[in-house]
Amino acid sequence: MFKISRKRKRQFIGMCTGVFISAITYVTLSLPQNDDYLSKGPLNTGHENLKCETCHTPAKGNVFQQAQANVMHAVGLRRTEADFGAQNVDNKKCLDCHDRANDRHPLHRFEEPRFAQARKDLGVTECESCHQEHNGVRITQTNIGYCQSCHEDTEMKNDPLEVSHKELIGQKRWNTCLQCHDFHGNHIFHAAESLKDTIPVQEIKAYFAGGNSPYAEEKKYYATTEEELENKN
Amino acid sequence: MKTFCKLNRLQSYVLLLLTTVGFYNCQPLPEESTATVSNKKYSIEEAFTIVSKENDVARTLYTKAIVGAGKKKGLKFDEDWEKDHIEAGPLPALFLRGIAGDIRKKGEVPLGLFLGSDFPIRKSNKFKGKQAELFAEMRKDEKPKFFYDAENKLYTAMFPDFASAGACVSCHNQHPETTKSDWVLGDIQGATTWTYPEDSVSFEELEGIIMAYRNGAANTFQKYIDKTKTFKESDIPVVGEEWPSGGYQLPSPNIFLDSVGLLTSEETLNGILKL
User: Fold this and answer.
1) Is residue B36 part of a domain?
2) In a domain, B27, yes or no
3) How far apart are CA B186 and CA A95, in angstroms?
4) Least packed by Cβ within 10 Å: which of A202, B1, B119, B237?
């Protein structure tokens, strides 16, 4: 049989120990009670009580298969990448619970070529771009005047405002938009017509950070809870 | 010596076990999309052409037989039809947007569908960049345009949207927010834009694309019918076999879709058979 030098033997033992420790770590960290070690940060507003697995559903196949698939993808033997460990948390997952038929900014509309600049500025086709998870807030988009990326040409023939949209936009008063409009259009309320009656920027910032909604208590659609989602599936 | 051999046998058992476990665990993970390169029968241009034909027919039928005829019988159509207090059905453009939204919501078929123009009613529907360039060409040669959108990584097509019914012209010319009020029948009023992530599709994928469109149309039509059931001020139209030309009534989504199928069947079939 083959002869093993002592150096080789030591290397082999070393490698085995390494593999063993990695395996233990992997298994321990996968245990639900150790969630916090893995967690990136506090969950966002409204998500405090969600289970990790509700968003991080396990990916298809086992670790070896996932690794193999990705190696094959890397060398060009496979068309698609495979998720490793847990599935990517994508828009579809968010919309499982936040489907709002009335969304005035349904993100799929921005996949059209002409929104290229807005995609570059804001990454506006992903919920994540404005609601990055694990930050302990409601909205992570810090520029409240981001409407600028798409509404430079907005004007109305019979504008009901004291200072018209065209003027507001001409003066680049982009922070005023969210003072009268919410973004998704899900709150039930009427937009003000005079700048005197608008929501102070301070209140909007507090809302972004996790405070109460300054637009209205009432909404057209409410989020699906974890229990409702489980019953649906 | 004896012990050494024993150890060796043990080692080989372990090795064998590890290999078996290894092989078992490393069965290749099936790809989500099953089509391999060899059975890609249709170029994406061919696929876009077939589904855009379906769209032309569905839209014209909707505009003429539902909106045009329905208005004469008292049915209303509005850009804010989805708002609670408005008792109306979707305009043709919003019927199309409903279909586009339904396809994306299901998410099974990665097909994108959009509507725009150079003289739009809605400012946010105005073409920019590459789309504006190609649309200017289309105004001259009336031909569809195909390109690969590298930034988006999507194969993209634009097809002319002709004013195919009197209602297209009159409604756009009279709209308070219109940017052009001298449209005539047969004009290119805008273009539909279609996107797909691959340059070719298999028969199954093509079928998926056509069915995603048809289901989107049926679901959007169903949404309209559901909406009519909530009417309080206006009468609720009867839904059944009959079309609005005969009275204050609507066909069921199946009847509507069957008619689309009937009108497109020959061309769609020719496209699929590459005749």
Assistant:
1) no
2) no
3) 40
4) B1
